[in-house]
Design a protein that fits this description.
Layout lengths: L2 H20 L4 H10 L6 H13 L3 E8 L2 E8 L1 H21 L2
Antiparallel strand pairs: 1-2
Length: about 100
């Protein structure tokens, strides 16, 4: 894994939690969304992140059959909302320092 990828994994997690706080998300949709923000994230990255966020209690999962394939939809949990709020505060503090 590249140093740049390691560095930005936290940002990717925050993006995922943010979008999951707005509506249910799924892997391919998040790969496309992250691409808009300049992140090249493939299935080998996005799905382990989604699974770990679910295992850590920040996302819940719902499965649905879509055209014969099982699609996993993720929603934010109360713990996910709490950690997202903490991230917002720390991001704001960091931005204030960087822009000083």
């Amino acid at each position: 894994m590249s140093l740049e990828r390691k560095f930005f994994l936290g940002f990717i997690r925050i993006h995922i939690l943010y979008h999951a706080s707005k509506k249910e998300i799924y892997g391919v949709e998040m790969m496309d969304e992250l691409k808009i923000h300049g992140y090249e994230v493939g299935p080998g990255t996005i799905y382990p992140i989604l699974h770990s966020l679910e295992e850590d209690g920040f996302l819940t999962i719902r499965e649905e059959n879509v055209n014969g394939k099982i699609r996993k939809y993720y929603s934010i949990t109360p713990n996910g909302i709490e950690i997202l709020e903490k991230a917002r505060l720390r991001i704001k503090e960091l931005i204030d320092e960087l822009m000083d």
